[in-house]
Amino acid sequence: MNGLRRLERALAVRESGESLALVRILAALALLWNVSSAFVSGVARMAWIDARFGGYMPLLPEPRVLALGGARPEVVTLLGLVSFVCGGLLLVGLRPRLAALVGGQTWIALSRLNPDTKGSYDALLVAILFLLAVARTDRALSPFARRGRVLRYPRLLMAVQLAAVYGSTALHKVSAAWTPAGGYSALYYILQQPSWHRFDMRWAAHVYPLTQVATAVVWWFELSFPLLVAVLVARNMGPAPVVRLGRMRMDLRTPWVVTGVAMHLCILAAMEVGPFSLIILSLYPSLYTPREVRTALARLARCRPRRWRRGRPATANGPPRDRP
Amino acid sequence: MSAVSHRTHRPPRLLRSARLRRVLRLAFVAFHLHAVCVLALPSPGAGMRRAAWKDPTVQHEFRTWARTLSSFGIDVEPPELEAFAWRAALAWVDLRRNLTTLARPYAEVVGARQPWRMFVAPHRYPSVLHLEVDEGTGFRPLYVARSRAYAWRGRLLDHDRMRAAIFRYAWPSYETNYHRFVRYLARKAARDVAEARRFRARYFKYRTLSPDEVLRGERLRGRFVRTYVVDLADLDRRPEGAP
């Protein structure tokens, strides 16, 4: 019973809102990218409109779309428009919970219409939007920011979501090519797949040993990521001895985050997988406390050219310290 | 006026007890974590098709794993390994379905499905889509995936969502949707190419070159598969989306 009480108390802990606000902004940019690219390229017109109304195939009976009258051009346009507006509201932090809830539901409706054109990033985006609907993300980094602190547990749920993505994708990688049995050749051959690459990648043969090292790093990075989040959550919510154990000198997050960011930037540069990299990177701020995010943003602000700066950094008299 | 607005921001009477709010929060977090964890367990998904396992890429995997197991003293032939993997996968799918019974309806509504099957295995025998049109003088290419020279409707067809669809349509199990896709594009071609009589779609399937083969300067070798020709004069007689 004591354990339950302690968990209840741990879930009621509050902190300032910079980390969640940064997740909100990045997820909003990903949603805007996702919506606009689908509509501007003509994919929405071809793939999300039912064959009866001019699309190329009969679509799945998505209940949200059926309630609006089916996958007609006007319904799909309306859903796209609503998603775009929700992305804009999330970006500026105006009514972000409602925007995340509505944006998530409209994106579920659109992206599930045609199972042949959906990507894993759609599922990740709506999972993030749901957590943004649960969290209070309008307490920082917004012209409409309200005063007050936010509950910490949605941030930890976001970190768990990130761990679930990496851990699960690592367990799905059953090919021998991801292991020494296949010579760690997976990345080299994936880069040769015409479905996803941006340009001819045969040059990778000249740096084959590097691709082997990268394959091993990627697989172990993904497989071990849940452990990092487990340490992080234990450090925040675990019993006192675990919390003390977690206070190590070395910041365990740095090697994982540096590897993850480098990996996703490489994916963005070499492969055409839509907004996947931005969507998954939008969860990274959840690994950091609001104080750490504030410090990082202040450092970024100091890097700007002098003429762009106005006044002192926002952190000069910021809210009290959060628990590390 | 201020009293009214103050009242509207208060939680419902049922939730005014701090203790109740904490218990509900704990229940939500526990259930959400359960849903995320069980749904993220690996799932073969659309890969549970016997025909898909006959693809050269999958067969290559069985050969590699059988060779690896043999090096550890476990002698097993690729067909035996495939049969064992099929039985194990069926049992796992069944167990996973039971584990996710409670979580699935929740995930459907909130959008927490956790389908993280990404780059499970490199496709050693990929396919490149070719779209061609015949104006009475034989077929000429309109679109070849990843080609700069033949990029008809490239903004649409090179979008990552269409790349996903085109990747799927190279597999036999997607034949019906592949034909629908081709007929849709045939209508567009009929509009864009005035003298077009026939429209042809086919995939060039080849084995990716190993690093050594690339360095030796070898060329890609493959064959065309899944050829589908549409007579543009017949198109108007078939309704859109018909199989």
Question: What's the helix and strand layout?
Answer:
The complex is a heterodimer of chains A (324) and B (243).
Chain A: H1 2-11, E1 14-15, H2 18-40, H3 43-47, H4 63-67, H5 73-92, H6 96-111, H7 120-134, E2 150-151, H8 153-172, H9 186-191, H10 208-237, H11 240-246, H12 253-270, H13 276-281, H14 290-303
Antiparallel strand pairs in A: 1-2
Helix pairs in contact in A: 2-5, 2-7, 2-14, 5-6, 6-7, 7-8, 8-10, 10-11, 10-12
Chain B: H1 2-8, H2 18-39, H3 50-53, H4 56-71, H5 78-99, H6 103-110, E1 127-134, E2 139-144, H7 154-157, H8 160-169, H9 175-192, E3 198-206, H10 211-215, E4 222-231
Antiparallel strand pairs in B: 1-2, 1-3, 3-4
Helix pairs in contact in B: 2-6, 4-5
Condensed summary:
The complex is a heterodimer of chains A (324) and B (243). Chain A has a domain at 15-151. In chain A, 60% of the residues lie in helices and 1% in strands.
Radius of gyration of chain A equals 22 Å
Order of helices and strands of chain B: HHHHHHEEHHHEHE
- One letter per element, helices H and strands E, the order of chain A comes to HEHHHHHHEHHHHHHH
Mean pLDDT of chain B: 91
Which structural class do you get from the secondary structure elements of chain B?
alpha+beta
Largest sheet of chain B: 4 strands, antiparallel
Distance between the termini of chain B: 62 Å
| Count of extended strands of chain A | 2
Distance between the termini of chain A: 27 Å
**Biggest contact:** A-B, 77 and 68 residues
Residue runs with pLDDT of under 50 for 5 or more positions of chain A? 312-324
Give the CA-based shape of chain A.
Answer: globular
- What's the average pLDDT of chain A? 91
